[in-house]
Write a structure and sequence with these properties.
6 helices, single chain, four-stranded antiparallel beta sheet, Alpha-Beta Plaits, Arc Repressor Mutant, subunit A, 2 domains, 17% strand, alpha+beta
């Protein structure tokens, strides 16, 4: 990964539907090499998928709740059961295994408080192994972004290249031995 790849990723994070010709122009490449780089980034898994971001409020999803879940036991089987159950719920937008007081932190998006109540009573409280549930309602979304912080592409590319150079030096030293 070099500075051009990072520029490509940055542009695609801004607009995944950008035409290849426009992308190539933005990163100072000709279209054919630009397309080859995008395909290589896709094949390597660096580009995972392309999505459409929707405005939840325009779709009636106005209540965002952060939910801390503590399990009765932190054994592997209980973690697997909980994680599988949560994966199947579309209103769970994010789920993280945590350190600290709670075992999991969920971000749940629902149309109203009644829908959240149903989520807790009909689903979350019935998942085997759930011991404690604490909820905090978000009053206002101050920041939301989906673009990863690629930072200064020149600096990041230098770190990647420096790491590659160091690895190459180590391989050369190993061959000499």
């Amino acid at each position: 990964m070099d500075a051009i790849d990072l520029k490509i990723l940055s542009e695609l994070q801004k607009n995944a539907r950008i035409a290849n010709v426009d992308l190539a122009r933005a990163v100072s490449l000709s279209p054919s090499p630009c397309l080859a780089r995008v395909r290589a980034l896709e094949q390597s898994g660096t580009i995972d998928r392309y999505v459409t971001l929707l405005d939840p409020k325009k779709l009636g999803l106005t209540v965002s709740v952060l939910v801390q879940v503590t399990l009765e036991k932190q054994v592997e089987s209980a973690l697997e059961i909980f994680e599988q159950a949560v994966r199947e719920r579309p209103e769970v937008m994010e789920c993280y295994l945590m350190t600290g007081d709670a075992d999991y932190l969920l971000r749940v998006l629902v149309p109203d408080v009644t829908a959240f109540e149903r989520f807790i009573l009909d689903f979350l409280s019935r998942v085997p192994g759930v011991g404690n549930i604490k909820s905090s309602f978000a009053l206002k979304q101050v920041k939301y972004q989906t673009a990863l912080p690629l930072g200064n592409s020149d600096t990041r590319a230098n770190r990647v290249n420096t790491s590659r150079d160091a690895s190459a030096r180590l391989r050369r030293r190993a061959k000499k031995r």
